[in-house]
């Protein structure tokens, strides 16, 4: 099985006709994703040929859903227009919207997150500023390369796109049920905890890799959840052990307050919950390999 995205997912691309949207639509199709169309009001009614596949362009998410049965949208819309695109997807009550766009103002993310909540959370938001979701052998929605790994028993949830790819590559001989890149912004839709819950409930996921990074308290909260609710083995990695104190780091979420938010505090919280934490991605992969061997 897989979480959130599987072989039955019908995907539309908001912003498909833009350069990034088109590039990744082509890549997702090659990965076997069932893409059923795109959304661009200015080009509604036209069709786009993508490597021999003719994809219709719709005026709205609602129209695309009505015509194709789409249940997933991937957003490749510039930051200034992303809020409107996500709100449109929420209003259409699509099941899943994956927001790839980087640089969305935090107040816009807060606005569409609150909008989803006001609508009863019928739409799961993943992102923004994320690589998306990959369920190897089933579907790939976002920018995660599809040829890194095959299907297997490991579930992965990560704030970092690059580290997602590295862990998938290092454990490619074992394989993954689903990889979820949740994004590193201060306000995101789907959290570590959401993914941990889903992986715990997925019968084909046997172990979980959780990648965090310095800043905020998401990993500490995830550690508390693991301690109380997760029975499957979890291996963790926190990016930022060597970050210089007091220096602003790359991801917008990397804001440290006192001792909270440091790599050391996150490691301590995770280890107290029974999570094995690697100091490097390679050590993390080795720890997971040991876990799988002992299952």
Automatic annotation (TrEMBL):
Heterotetramer of two alpha and two beta subunits. One of its GO terms (cellular component) is succinate-CoA ligase complex (ADP-forming). It comes from Glycomyces terrestris. Pfam families: CoA_binding (PF02629), Ligase_CoA (PF00549). Succinyl-CoA synthetase functions in the citric acid cycle (TCA), coupling the hydrolysis of succinyl-CoA to the synthesis of either ATP or GTP and thus represents the only step of substrate-level phosphorylation in the TCA. The alpha subunit of the enzyme binds the substrates coenzyme A and phosphate, while succinate binding and nucleotide specificity is provided by the beta subunit. Its EC number is 6.2.1.5. The gene is sucD. Residues 4-104 form the CoA-binding domain. This is Succinate--CoA ligase [ADP-forming] subunit alpha. SMART domains: CoA_binding. Belongs to the succinate/malate CoA ligase alpha subunit family. The keyword Glycoprotein does not apply. One of its GO terms (molecular function) is succinate-CoA ligase (ADP-forming) activity. It catalyses: succinate + ATP + CoA = succinyl-CoA + ADP + phosphate; GTP + succinate + CoA = succinyl-CoA + GDP + phosphate. Pathway: Carbohydrate metabolism; tricarboxylic acid cycle; succinate from succinyl-CoA (ligase route): step 1/1. Keywords: Ligase, Nucleotide-binding, Tricarboxylic acid cycle.
